[in-house]
Recover the amino acids of this structure.
């Protein structure tokens, strides 16, 4: 018996196939902020890059499903100030949802992701 497994020998060990992430185009930055910050646990890292002439924001997450997790790459096109490295979001404002790009992550009313 191999420690930590229920297999007798290494010949029985197989790796599960790696699932590529499912790309999900998010309509706008407000929905992207909601998905990346309000609907996920912990702090999120957002990637920013150029594709052709567009600025893209993207993040990886996993959707829990009956048969395991479905990896997702959510992305949106957004014009933003690259000198502001945080996306801030809150949903309990009297005005409704609020999001902004900012240069500090110190206001505890918001949830933040680094861009």
């Amino acid at each position: 018996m191999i420690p930590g497994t229920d297999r007798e020998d290494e010949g029985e060990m197989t790796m599960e196939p790696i699932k590529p992430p499912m790309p999900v185009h998010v309509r706008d930055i407000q929905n992207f902020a909601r998905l990346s910050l309000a609907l996920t646990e912990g702090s999120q890292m957002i990637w920013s890059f150029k594709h052709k002439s567009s600025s893209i924001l993207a993040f990886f997450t996993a959707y829990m499903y009956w048969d395991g997790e479905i990896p997702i790459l959510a992305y949106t096109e957004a014009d933003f100030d690259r000198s502001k490295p945080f996306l801030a979001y809150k949903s309990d404002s009297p005005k409704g949802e609020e999001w902004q790009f900012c240069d500090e992550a110190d206001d505890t009313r918001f949830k933040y992701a680094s861009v």
In short: The mean pLDDT is 85. Residues 20-114 form one domain. The longest strand covers residues 54-65. The chain has one helix and eight strands.
